[in-house]
Amino acid sequence: MSNIRKIAELANVSITTVSRVLNNHPYVAEEKRKAVLDIIKQLNYTPNINAIHLAKGHTGIVGVVVPNMTLPYFSAVVDGISNKAMKHDYKLMIYQTKYEREKEIEALEMLKKKQVDGLIIISRKVEWSLIESYSEYGPILICEDRESKKISTISINHYEGFAIGMNYLREKGHKRVGCCLSRLEGSNSKRRIQAYYDFGEKFEMDVREQWIFKGCLFIEDGRRVIEQLKKMPESPTALLVASDYVAAGVMTSCNEYGVKVPTDLAFIGFDNHPLAEALHITTIEHPIVELGSRALAKIHSVLHEAEAPSQSQLPLKLIERKTV
């Protein structure tokens, strides 16, 4: 406060005027604003940003909880969030959690301590009830298909996505179908598995637990899947691969092991990543960047327009290429 008093004294204005200039308040006479800014420059004064945030009641910062920034899906969502954040003049604070519960709670505590204005959780491990208990401290949005009166959600219907893929493979004559997923305990993976079994039962397709390949996140996991398929006495003729990144690994490994695509093995990726286009991989397009953009827009609306939490979903689209 002594620095502000000094500035006010030298500029011959009130402390309130100095505070308004520091907070970029519009209702300050131009000559007084100039006098204050000149003194600030002379003194090389740096305002206490925490004090400014406290005075304003907001930080202009949105927290983003993301398990792994190296994965294309998550980085694309963050890209969408970042694009919209720039438009609304927000800064982002990224929490890369590696699905560690304690790290996710740290992010929630930042919201409670008013160090961020809102929180976007792209994927989580911490229980839903705990997240809801933090909703009183600021807006929270989760990229997940779930109903809630306290938390906004925006999602892609992963059940529908797998159903689209299963139906397309069925129409192409495939009866034995496997799938590649990341975390089996994740809510999105659970919906995909449900669609896998539901569709298999409805149309008498051969779907088996041993044909569900878990832990599929990276290109090298596609190689692992092909190596496992080669060892099976009976293997699926088609795969639903929940990431184009992994599907790219399947494609390159098929070439290496002499597996003909789509004659010996057909597969569908998800996301419509540029890599899928380059390798001509049939995929289910997820508007991932748009999902991130809408997530930030919702946080902004709750903060500035007092919107209530809400749930929304984005559409999916089959992109036919050469792997089926």
From TrEMBL:
Alphabetized InterPro entries for the sequence: HTH_LacI, LacI/GalR-like_sensor, Lambda_DNA-bd_dom_sf, Peripla_BP_I
The record lists the organism as Priestia filamentosa
Which molecular-function annotations from GO does this UniProt entry contain?
Answer: DNA-binding transcription factor activity; transcription cis-regulatory region binding
Taxonomic superkingdom: Bacteria
Q: Which residues form a coiled coil?
A: none
Q: Which SMART domains match?
A: HTH_LACI
PROSITE patterns, per the entry: HTH_LACI_2
Q: Which Pfam families match?
A: LacI, Peripla_BP_3
Sorted keywords for this record are: DNA-binding, Transcription, Transcription regulation
Q: What is this protein called?
A: LacI family transcriptional regulator
